[in-house]
């Protein structure tokens, strides 16, 4: 089968699997299961008049508000059309140079690097080693790289690389003119792990953010990038004018200001994750050591039957995310979103059925 690049496409998957009539719950997209904050729809509707004129090309008001919240200078932040644009801008900044990508990782780093003719070296981590960084290998490789792309917390496992290791890489990178581009698209789910404070210490750090995941707004397209002023200035030059639409830029600071929404999500998620972990332990499934709203799953008793498990889940109305296009996994695991309590319970019932079947 021609597996799609990204999750969150239930209609396409149903078509590919010749089951257009089947009702499925989409566990393949990694968005906040609680949905957007309640006030957002009204705010977007109230902002519609902003669509009648061009947005400020510098998004000065939103930029300043976000910079204040991140406790950095206005010149150190750039609003982007989703995290995806931030990834492509970062790759463009290193056009034609040498990049390392720590895998398994979001597939767009590689696509962006190839698009801008970077010479790419793959660095693999594995579920057997809990996705720990091969620090010796990495420290040895840094002199031969201009930039290292890392996803933290990582997609697809939800694992967070220890801050100490990131600091070690940044420190060595500083001496060898190697940058670290760290995608923090999911850091809102573990806010204590944000690396923003390190920006002051390390001019070779570029942080990428997405508001898509925490706020469940994939259609709005909203993200930002944080780095030293000189880097941000150059990125601005690469950006398409008015790349971020007026509605997105207007609600960006309001979203980040709503601390109770994200705090509630984090609390709720912790509870759900514990239940899933207990189930996995009691029923002999591997569940990655996740800190976010998705995880990797494998049947410990039948590691080679992940595709059969995917099909079983699908036939029972659960769409999981395949991992064929994640280097280092190549389909060995499934990625599943944490959804509502009721939907998670449904998933566990079906996994129990699978367990009893074999
Ligand atoms: C790790 C990671 N970074 C960035 C993105 C892109 O996010 P956005 O929708 O904000 O472009 C995704 C989307 O799946 C992702 O998983």
From TrEMBL:
Name of the protein described by the UniProt record:
threonine-phosphate decarboxylase
What InterPro entries does the entry give?
A: Aminotransferase_I/II_large, CobD, PyrdxlP-dep_Trfase, PyrdxlP-dep_Trfase_major, PyrdxlP-dep_Trfase_small
**Signal peptide range:** none
Pathway, per record: Cofactor biosynthesis; adenosylcobalamin biosynthesis
- What keywords were assigned to this record? Cobalamin biosynthesis, Lyase, Pyridoxal phosphate
Q: Which residues form the Aminotransferase class I/classII large domain?
A: 24-349
Instruction: Report the EC number(s), separated by commas if there are several.
Output: 4.1.1.81
Tree of life domain: Bacteria
Which organism encodes this protein? Answer: Sutcliffiella horikoshii
GO process annotations (BP) = cobalamin biosynthetic process
The cofactors required by this protein are:
pyridoxal 5'-phosphate
Catalytically driven reaction(s): O-phospho-L-threonine + H(+) = (R)-1-aminopropan-2-yl phosphate + CO2
């Amino acid at each position: 089968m021609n597996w799609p690049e990204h999750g969150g496409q239930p209609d396409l998957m149903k078509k590919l699997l010749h089951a257009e009539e089947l009702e499925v719950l989409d566990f393949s997209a990694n968005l906040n299961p609680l949905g957007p904050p309640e006030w957002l729809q009204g705010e977007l509707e109230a902002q519609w008049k902003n669509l009648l004129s061009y947005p400020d090309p510098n998004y000065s008001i939103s930029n300043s508000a976000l910079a204040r919240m991140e406790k950095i200078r206005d010149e150190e932040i750039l609003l982007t059309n989703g995290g995806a644009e931030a990834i492509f801008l970062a790759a463009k900044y290193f056009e034609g140079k040498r990049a390392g990508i720590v895998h398994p990782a979001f597939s767009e780093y590689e696509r962006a690097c190839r698009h801008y003719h970077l010479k790419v070296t793959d660095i693999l981590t594995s579920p057997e080693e809990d996705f720990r960084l091969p620090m010796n290998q990495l420290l040895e490789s840094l002199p031969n790289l201009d930039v290292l792309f890392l996803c933290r917390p990582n997609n697809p496992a939800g694992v967070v690389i220890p801050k100490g290791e990131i600091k070690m890489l940044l420190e060595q990178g500083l001496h060898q003119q190697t940058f670290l581009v760290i995608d923090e698209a999911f850091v809102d789910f573990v806010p204590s792990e944000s690396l923003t404070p390190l920006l002051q210490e390390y001019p070779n750090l570029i942080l990428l953010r997405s508001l898509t995941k925490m706020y469940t707004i994939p259609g709005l397209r909203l993200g930002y990038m944080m780095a030293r002023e000189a880097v941000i200035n150059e990125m601005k030059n690469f950006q398409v004018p008015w790349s971020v639409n007026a509605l997105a830029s207007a609600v960006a600071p309001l979203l980040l200001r709503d601390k109770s929404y994200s705090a509630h999500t984090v609390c709720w998620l912790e509870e759900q994750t514990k239940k899933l972990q207990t189930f996995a332990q009691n029923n002999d499934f591997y569940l990655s050591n996740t800190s976010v709203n998705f995880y990797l799953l494998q049947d410990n008793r039948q590691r080679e039957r992940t595709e059969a498990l995917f099909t079983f889940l699908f036939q029972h109305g659960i769409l999981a995310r395949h991992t064929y296009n994640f280097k280092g996994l190549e389909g060995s695991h499934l990625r599943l979103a944490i959804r509502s309590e009721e939907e998670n319970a449904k998933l566990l019932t079906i996994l129990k059925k699978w367990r009893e079947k074999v």
